[in-house]
Amino acid sequence: MIDANNLIVGDAVEILNSWNEACVDLTVTSPPYDNLRNYKGYSFDAELMLSAIHRVTKKGGVCVWVVGEKINGGRSLSSFDHAFIGRDCGFTVHDVMIYQKKNTPFQRSNAYTNCYELMIVFSKGKPKTFNPLKEPTKRHGWETAVSNKGPDAVNRKRPVELKKEKTKNNIWQYAVGYGGTTTDKIAFQHPAVFPEKLAADHILSWTNPGDIVLDPMCGSGTTCKMAHKNNRKWIGIDISKEYIEIAKNRMAKASNLTV
Ligand SMILES: C[S@@+](CC[C@H](N)C(=O)[O-])C[C@H]1O[C@@H](n2cnc3c(N)ncnc32)[C@H](O)[C@@H]1O
Question: Is 0.90 topped by the overall pTM?
Answer without folding.
Answer: yes
